[in-house]
Amino acid sequence: MNLELRKINITDLKLGDQMKVENGTLTINEKKIIDELKEDVNIKDVKVDIAVPGEKVRIIPVKDVIEPRLKIEGEGKGFAGVSSDMAQLGSGKVNVLNGAAVVTIGDVVGFQEGVIDMWGEGAKWTPFSSTYNIVVDITPIDGLDPHTHEQTVRFAGLRAAEIIGEAANEVEPDEIKNYNLGNVHEETEKYPDLPKIAYVEMLISQGLLHDGYVYGVNTQDILPTYIHPNEELDGAVISGNCVAACDKITTYQHQNNSVILDLYEKHGKEINFQGVILTPEVTTLAGKFRTCDYTVKLCKSLGADGVVISEEGYGNPDSDLLMICKKLEDEDIKTVLITDECAGRDGMSQPLADTTPEAKAVVSTGNVSHVVTLPKADKVLGDDRAIATLAGGWEGCLENDGTIRCELNAVIGATSEIGYHNLTVKLY
C-alpha cells in the first residue's frame, strides 16, 4: 500500500461565507456545517465556533477531536464504513488540513469528556491547545436511547470533519509524506538482517462510551486483527471512548498515530516494521485470555522478533497489557510497553493494577492523577460545570471565580499512551 499525505499547513482560522484555504488561513462556513449536520433527524441543534492557540478560551466537555481531510485519489472517502460506503483504505492521496482540528462538544450520556484550554497552564498539558479548532456543539433530539445518542454525536463529528475537509480541494500542499509498506514476505526479502517488529495497539472495548471502531465495527465484536499501518493513518480506526480524557485515543490521534509514524521512520534502517495488530480490551477474564492468546498467535505468525504494545485507558486493561507481555516474552519475543500511571496525587501509589517480572522495558507517559490548576477563561465553549462529572474532576473543583482544579485525567490527550502528547520522561 502506498499512501500520500499532502499536508496543507493551517496558520490561521476564521468564520466566513465560504469554505476555503488561502495563504494558510482556513475560512469556515458555519452555516454549511450546521445545515448539513441538521439533515440528521436525530440532531436538534448545532452550534459552530472557533478557538485558536493563545486565546483565553476553554473548551468543555470535549467528546472527540478529528483532523479534517479530503481524499483526492484512491478508494474510500472520509471514514469508510461509518460516514461513507465501505472501501479499502490505506492507498491513494489525501489532502490534510494540517494544524486544524474539529472538536466536538455537548452532553453525552453518563460520564462526560475532557477539557482543552487554549492558553496558559492548561495549554501545556494537551496537544490540542496548539491546533486551530473548529468547535462543533451538538444537541440531539430528546428521548434518544443512550447508544443512539452517543452514535449521533460521534457521527456528527466525523461528518463535520469531512465537510471542512472539502476546503482542501485543489489546494497545493506545503509538505508531502509518503507511506509505503509491502507485505511481510516482501519487506523481509528487502531487509533480511533487520529485526522484525510488530505493533500491538490495544483499544478499549467495554460497552457504551468505552469502545473503539474499525471500519465502523465495534471492537467489542472482533478478535485481534491485523491491519496495514496505512489503514489507520487513512481513517480506518475511530474513537468512541469517552471516559478518561487523558489517555483516550481520539480519532485525530489515530489518524496521526505516533507509534506507527515512529516505526515507519525506523523501517529499513533499524527495524523491519511488520504492521499493526488491533487488540480489543474486554472486561471478562475469559475474554482477556482469548484476546491475549490470539494476539500472541498473530505475532508468532508474523515471525516477529519484537513487539511494541500500547494501551488505551488504565485499570483492568493493565492486566491485558501485562498478560500479552508475559506470553510474548515466554515465546522469546521481546516487548516494549507504553502505558500511563495511576499513581495517586502524590505519585506514591502502585502505578499499574497488575505487573509481571517479564515487563522490563516500559515507557511511562505520565501520572493521570497529577493535579493541575487551570485559571479562569475569558470565554467558555460548552459548559464548564461539566468538570464535576469528568473523570479527574469532582464536585466543587470549579471555583466561584472560574478556576478549575482537576487531575490530568480530565485533560484531553494529556497522557496519551500512543505518545501523541506533550509530556516527556526524565530519569533521575
Write a compact overview of the structure shown.
Keywords: Pyruvate, Schiff base. The protein is an alpha/beta fold.
Describe this structure in words.
There is one protein chain. By secondary structure, this protein is of the alpha/beta class. It has one domain. Helix content is about 20%, strand content about 35%. β14 and β15 form a beta hairpin. The radius of gyration is 21 Å and the shape is globular. The mean pLDDT is about 95.
Low-confidence stretches: none
Major β-sheet profile = 6 strands, mixed
* Mean of all residue-level pLDDT scores: 94
Q: What is the terminal-to-terminal distance?
A: 43 Å
Shape: globular
Count of folded domains? 1
> How many DSSP helices?
9
Say what oligomer this is.
single chain
Roughly what fraction of the amino acids lie in strands? 25-35%
Radius of gyration: 21 Å
- Based on secondary structure, the structural category is alpha/beta
Number of DSSP-assigned strands: 24
Helix percentage:
10-25%
Which characteristics define this entry?
six-stranded mixed beta sheet, Beta-aspartyl-peptidase, schiff base, 21% helix, Gly_reductase_pB_sua/b, alpha/beta, 428 residues, Gly/sarc/bet_Rdtase_B_asu/bsu
